[in-house]
Amino acid sequence: MVSTSSTSGRRWSSLSRPLTLVGLALGPLAVLGVFFVLPVSAMLARGFVVDGSLDVGGVLDVLARPRVHRVLWFTLWSAAAGTVMSLALGLPAAYALYRLDLPLRRPLRALLLVPFALPTVVVGVAFRRLLADSGPLGFLGLDGSAIAIVLGLTFFNAAVVIRAVGTAWEGLDPRPAEAAAALGASPWQVLRTVTLPALKPALVSATSVVFLFCATSFGVVLTLGGLRYSSVETEIYLLTNNLLDLRAAAALSVLQILVVVVLLVVAQRLRATPDPTQERTPPRPRRARRGDVAALVATGLLLVLVLAPMTSLLLGSLRVGDGWGLAAYRALATTGASPGGAEVLAVPVTDALLTSLRTAVDATWMSLLVGLLVAVVVTRHSRGRVERRVRSGLDAVFMLPLGVSAVTVGFGFLIALDEPPLALRDSPLLVPIAQALVALPLVVRTIAPVLGGVDDRQRQAAASLGASPLRAVLTVDLPVVWKPLLAAAGFAFAVSLGEFGATSFLARDDHPTLPVVIYRLLGHPGELNYAMALAASVVLAATTAVVVLAVERLRVPSAGAF
């Protein structure tokens, strides 16, 4: 007969691990609560609370506005079109670059992954330069069109598909597909019945993240859509920054958060299917065959989509007036000039670049510190349903900044962090903290898969041999996770360097970041100001490209995969 004390001991043991789990997560949860939940809640309260009382009816009236319907419809269909285009070009490119033995395969792979970390405002400027009436493709009449926005979204997000699906495709065991082909299945049947089901977790992950990125893209829609097109993200910016209609902004923010939560839950359930065909050692790539022509053509089209706007951007930065030269780059040491002779910027563009670099460094170490702890919490082996649900819930909570409007977070910072004990409005750490929140989901998704792949029995063996918890981490986890840590740092740095949504609210005039300066230069007339914006975009793109290429050389399979 089992004693009462032993039964109570087992019950306490079953609860102690989830409690320990929550205890380890208290630090990251506190950071998320202060710098995400509090600002977002403050922003929403401004819209829902009128004269001290809750006014839900007013918010529902906002959602009934015809303009809000147009904004929601444009956001949904443009995000869906951008996702479909990203998959249509990204999947063949993932196959070609990860399964075929092509010349210059790795440089091409790195080149097509660069757009993932490019600042959205740079992508917008590059496409405007390419499609403008005076640009190389101006004859197409696509400048300021919805097609231009979808192309910009595809340029930015196809890299997510290539990375997430390509790394999974590279590790697939080829024997099930070969067996199906030997039994008479056509290539299409093999793809539909064997390959795609094996890639389901990666496909679901990539599709959900790409849709979120497309739906919450700020810089691309703002620079390419102008006043004609507006997504939920840019509409929130317009309502808060220009019209001060906080009720309407709050209504759109709530709707966006609900959609993000539902999408994350659905994606997590769908990709929970285990993939039994994955191997530790990827099979050797094979030579291209006649049946691979379609994949190679799609890869070529994607390469053109990536190179054309960036080449146009570079050429535009070298042309001022009727000549060619480096005048625009030399002018980066100035503050620009309006037609009346007044200065456009408070500081030179070069100062803004230094501010961006310093801010990105701070945002990187902040996101790494919190992200590593989150990754440890969500990847430790779960014992029992309660603990598994707690870990799953924590994982979903820390993914929320991925899809919540950065504009909402930025404006919420101004509202919630303006009074003691959190009077941080004038703090130089405010912008890095906001950028760290944006980079946090990426850091977690880069580190967590690697930590989750470490066999927990190795840690138990180290502990049984007398190793302290710190020694076990240094001997078991660190050798496996140091490359992903470097990769996460690189991606966080690149993403922070180009963050524009929250930073557009928080950056001070005397300490702007480079994306903010680029947008201000574009808003002032003058040929030199425009050329300076192009030159600054080239500098920003080159900096992020160098970081991404360095990360790619680490060859971390999970980097950038969600």
UniProtKB/TrEMBL annotation:
Segments passing through the bilayer: 71-98, 110-127, 147-166, 202-226, 246-267, 293-315, 363-382, 394-417, 429-451, 485-508, 528-551
Membrane topology, from the record: Multi-pass membrane protein
Keyword Transport on entry: yes
Residue ranges constituting the ABC transmembrane type-1 domain according to the UniProt record: 72-267, 353-551
Record-linked InterPro entries: MetI-like, MetI-like_sf
Main location, first listed in the record: membrane
Compartments it resides in: Cell inner membrane; Cell membrane
Keyword terms of this UniProt record: Cell inner membrane, Cell membrane, Membrane, Transmembrane, Transmembrane helix, Transport
PANTHER family given in the database record: INNER MEMBRANE ABC TRANSPORTER PERMEASE PROTEIN YDCV (PTHR43357)
Protein family membership: Belongs to the binding-protein-dependent transport system permease family.
Name the UniProt record assigns to this protein: Iron ABC transporter permease
